């Protein structure tokens, strides 16, 4: 028989393993679509990282977005089909491609960031700043623990 403390930890694990992420991703995708940006939340994460720094390798994008190489390849392929990114051969390493934004993707940044901020505001509505800070500390510790 499970005790109440263990049940609470299992529910917390369930939360960490995807419920919040899925809900936020769905809302983000809907908010983007509402303003005519028809990309997935996963594609958004690639664009967001490239808005921060262009010319990243697929490996660097995989690390920054916590995705595996096949997932990154699929996302980049789809973003290329949408004319949002281009691959350029890395002059220093012929085995790698550097990923750059197209003009179309650069034009999406402001509206996309507005929708991201809207999504986060909707997700955190009614959550106190202290609770948010505590959650950030907790989740960062979980990540650090699992990197060992």
From TrEMBL:
Q: Which residues cross the membrane?
A: none
Q: What residue stretches are annotated with the HTH marR-type domain?
A: 1-148
- Kindly state which keywords UniProt assigns to this record, in alphabetical order: DNA-binding, Transcription, Transcription regulation
Q: Which domain of life is it from?
A: Bacteria
InterPro entries (alphabetical): HTH_MarR-typ, MarR/SlyA-like, WH-like_DNA-bd_sf, WH_DNA-bd_sf
Q: Which Pfam families match?
A: MarR
Tell me what this protein is called. Answer: MarR family transcriptional regulator
**Organism, per UniProt?**
Sphingobacterium kitahiroshimense
The top of its lineage is: Bacteria, Pseudomonadati, Bacteroidota, Sphingobacteriia, Sphingobacteriales
